[in-house]
Amino acid sequence: MVIESPNNAPAPSAVAPSAIARDGFVSVRGAGENNLRGVDVDVPRDAVVAFTGVSGSGKSSLAFGTIYAEAQRRYLESVAPYARRLIQQGHSPHVGSITGLPPAVALQQRRGTPSVRSTVGTLTTLSNSLRMLYSRAGTYPADAVERLESDAFSPNTAGGACPRCHGLGIARDVTEETLVPDPSLTIREGAIAAWPGAWQGKNLRDVVGELGHDIDVPWRELPQQARDWLLFTEEQPVVEVTPQRDRVAKPYKGRFWSAKSYVMHTLRDSKSQQMRDRVLPFMESGPCGVCGGSGLRPEALAVTFAGLSIAEANALPLADLAAHLEPAATLEHPVAAHGSWTSGEGTEVSVTISRDLVQRLRVLVDLGLGYLSLSRATPTLSPGEMQRLRIATQLRSGLFGVVYVLDEPSAGLHPADVEPLLAVLAALKDAGNSVFVVEHNMDVVRRSDWIVDVGPLAGEGGGEIIYSGPAGGLVDVQASLTAPFLARTAPAAAVDGAAREPSAWLRLEGIRRHNLQGLDAAVPVGVLTAVTGVSGSGKSTLVSKVLAEAVGAHVRDDTPADLEPVDDGTAPEADTGSTVAGIGGLEAFDRLVSVDQKPIGRTPRSNLATYTGLFDAVRKAFAATPAARSRGFGAGRFSFNVQGGRCETCQGEGFVAVELLFLPGSYGPCPACAGSRYNEETLEVTLDGRTIADVLGMTVDDAASALRDIPAAARSLATLQEVGLGYLRLGQPATELSGGEAQRIKLATELQRARRGHTLYLLDEPTTGLHPADVVLLLAQLRKLVEAGNTVVVVEHTMAVVAAADWVIDLGPGGGSAGGRIVASGTPAHIAGLAPEVSATAPYLAEHLGARSGA
Fold first, then answer.
1. H-helix or E-strand spanning residue 384
2. How far from 814 is each of 319, 390, 416, 417, CA to CA, in Å?
3. 415 and 13 in contact (C-beta within 8 Å)?
4. How confident is the model over 65-110, as pLDDT tens digits?
5. Rg of the chain taking only CA atoms, in angstroms
6. Angle at the Cα of 501 (from 495 to 502), degrees rounded to 5?
7. Backbone φ and ψ of 440, nearest 5°
């Protein structure tokens, strides 16, 4: 394989550094990170450079694992050793040399579990500035004693959080109506439903009787004072009880618990999730009455700026907040500030902080996010909104001469939202920076100055530079899988012939959730439907929330279970759920499967083989060998997660970590098992000449041939190949997988099951992280699901998928409060014919269909 030089003259792929390094270029020599094969490449500075290639080709290993990692390593070498301990350090990349490398800033996709305490304000750090504004320049009430510190304006600090709701803004409490759903029952008959059952419940009823309360009259006939005490008191008197239900009455000391005390104690202290789930329905959630839902103490809410409390300012749309602060930011003759709390608005401090806030807010408004508010919780944001918020945090830094390395900045963005993104990338370049983007969006790639195409295939079939040169030159490179899509000459991914006709309709009326207010939606049955619209228009809310919950409540829900929840000390998300006035057409379904991009595991112990279940079949096959049976080894012996067969030195991890105080941690193969994860006795058992460790080290493509005699494993491997994951290793840790790879693994796990029809499949942006060539493979699998009698609904921004759909539901016209409405629905051809004023999707779909028909 050769490198294409800028003038398209082939150059040797391995050249001495001094022979090819040039001014104005970042020159990489001998990069061997992950699947890279001694890569040599020159990448220009002061340009927008797109790194392309099929999923798993090695482009991220080059951009992030090599170039950015080396820039970070060099920077950290300049930091004092003691301070270096406090910084999360990356690894030292496997590379011969890199010359011409400026400092680098990375903007990677973060796929964590969002906290309900995280908001637009905290994510962008705008909340910090707003709190400082209210602390130092706010108007305090006349009876104020002293100025509040900025932490007092944060619901996430001990000094600022509302004492009742602890800063969440949502109060969870019990009421008489929730604790006693049927007041016609007596206490003996179980009127206090929140109390435990079995012996504990009988004990409490006996205690109540000993305390002098009548347990045989209907609850509603008890005095209100007695009812309130039984339900809400904090007292826990102990009385002697003589049970009458036992043959031998043995007196004992019984303690009373009010219904509220029992519920709160169970939620707070019980280790049993089953018990916690039992008492949760007795709780009611609503805006906190003390703070009005702001999560702040009354002292902070009493401070105003420009007539608004900080809670009211946080609730304003960003565009309105910028306009609200504009007069303070442009004040021409501010007065001097002083240390007293009476030093408020109109001071130099007020102007300085307001000006900074307005400038930063304008960046978000220019990125099309003016409809969001600082108080908007991040779990309610779409992927496109999250991505643009992260980008915005970098735009006000004013850095010069650095390399920005971005991981799929267009991920989750509608084509209309990509336009302002491209303007942002150009602005970064014009400011004297270099912009390196790992991208699959051909619109972004076409607008770049330089392309580095990695491939030709994925995994072991990739890791080589197919082309490195100006954007226009890639279309002539025959070995590139990207070139046909860049030139729009790739075969059409759409279904040939007429669109399928729906066999029925699923209708939902009066939908209310987030920005969907009173929406009516009709989803065709038995076809592939694409739900489109600009970022934040309500697509994910409609499909992944409303549809999933409404249908899942009536049919069997086979959605892959979420990972264990992360206990971050917060209450569940303050989301009241969907309200659907009516639903019809459910008889068309008997099953629901929702496939998202959440990780398939949070630790290296979770991997492709364990998640899909194929490893169970492999372990059983090993246990059935004569060598295993003679030793008494069962299937559990071949698991690296339990004692017995695993290596105890590394406890089945395969590697050991050495923490170095002032340097990045060092990871290496376990010295006892050499990285195999198993002990010697387990590795003595082989299947067709391979150990269990050998099997985990194989790629899906290799394993498909080696394990073809194990039906369950062969079926899983075949479906993984069909969705384009043949390059992954069976034992590849879940932590190394992208969101797109995780979603395709989930889809393959579902596809390996027997086709049964009458299932509703919901997918949220399944093409995120996929090269256009991989999108073609994904579409083939979605068609198979439809052909088997199922219904598939996908949230999508990729026009190739929208064009291949049978039906399109387009939301808009804008995002947030400007969206939430179905602006158009119909076939792709119908949507493409609409005016841009009606549908933001129409012009981009028309362009795609036109380019395809002309190809």
1. helix 383-395
2. 14, 20, 10, 11
3. no
4. 999 999 988 888 877 776 666 666 667 889 999 999 999 988 776 5
5. 31
6. 120
7. -115, -15
